[in-house]
Amino acid sequence: ISYIPGIVAAVSLFALSTTDCLNRITWAFFEQLSVTDQVGLLGLFFATIIFAIDVALFVGPSSTVAANSHAEHAPPFQYPLNEIASCQTDREKFTLLFPTLRDDIISQLELLTKGELSRNHEAMKWLVECMDYNVPGGKLNRGLTVIDVQRTLTSANQNRNLTDLEIARASVLGWALEFLQAFFLVADDVMDDSQTRRGQPCWYKLPRIGNIAINDSFLLESFVFVLLKRHFGTEPYYGDLLDLFLEVTLKTELGQLLDLTSQPLDQTTGKAIMDLDRFTIHRHALIVKYKTAFYTFYLPIAIGMITSGVPSSNKQAYQVAQKICCIMGEYFQIQDDYLDCYGDPKTIGKVGTDIQDNKCSWLVVQALDRASPAQRDILEKNYGQWDDSKVAKVKALYDDLNLKEAFETYEEDSYQRIQLALDEVKMMPRDVFELLLKRIYKRKY
Hints:
By secondary structure, the chain is mainly alpha-helical. α8 runs parallel beside α10 and α10 runs antiparallel to α11. The termini are far apart.
């Protein structure tokens, strides 16, 4: 409770008691006023007191909060606007911001632990290395897309380009998405027993890391929300951003679950049991939608919509965006499945292991849909095994079934489906989606 009303009352009572003013007021109240006037005056008196308390509660606690905020939180974040202005490309501006954000996350952790974990503590040094190794090393397409979407919407709605500050803040949201991506990939590599990622050994494959990478993935996810609160916690759309990231994270984890459980596990050994009957086109479509489409395509689009003022109550706009992004996400993931088998590891940044990992990929569900009984037998005997000769037999079967040509046909059909879906876009610029499509159409990595 605020102390302001008590101070005001004490000072007033002291001032009145030093003269005979209080006695005269008391005499006038009881002797000169009617009962009706007394009731009215008392009502006014108590209403004034209640109003004063309300004002005090409004003013007093905010001062306290401000004081506590000053004591417990870091100063406002200083964006390197001069350096950003000197950069020529969005990629340069985007990557410029990462070291500053990384160091600020460490500062936030110092405050969170009240200095018990200082910047020089081994745990902090571990986290810096973890972030440097896992977050900025990819193509950064998801993060850069956030800037592109923001620019496209600002140009359409306000007929101007982004300011350096707006680019910086869009970059923060882009890096939040890249931190989320790093969380997914670090955890996914452990679960899939992958060997390389982005042209280097997976984080958990480093000798001193191992299964500690699992906890590191959790920390990378937490840093997403550190960034959102630090940079957007006072924005009116902060709640919408939180809801968006939480929803997309959950949907992506559901997609991972669908992927991991596409084959049953032996209750004794804990190893997957081959059951190709579970590899269906429908199951693959669900995995693709939830594991890839939402965080790769819908998330950067929805971020731009929220920060550009498209209210969350505008359900139709978000539903149309989600529909188009899911089609793009399906196409993108099927490209990934294809490149895992046929792409150059030097170009795609990893050695494909979907066949060895017994993955429910587009290639295998298409093969099962087209295979004769004899060809299915080849899959039954060779798929999902870490044996180079058996992997070669599966790839040879894919060639026999003309899956390369099937993919090229699918790619063109998907492009046309996306174009038709774009015709439904009425409440925002079509260019927002076109820029995504240009990035993925006929990609080689």
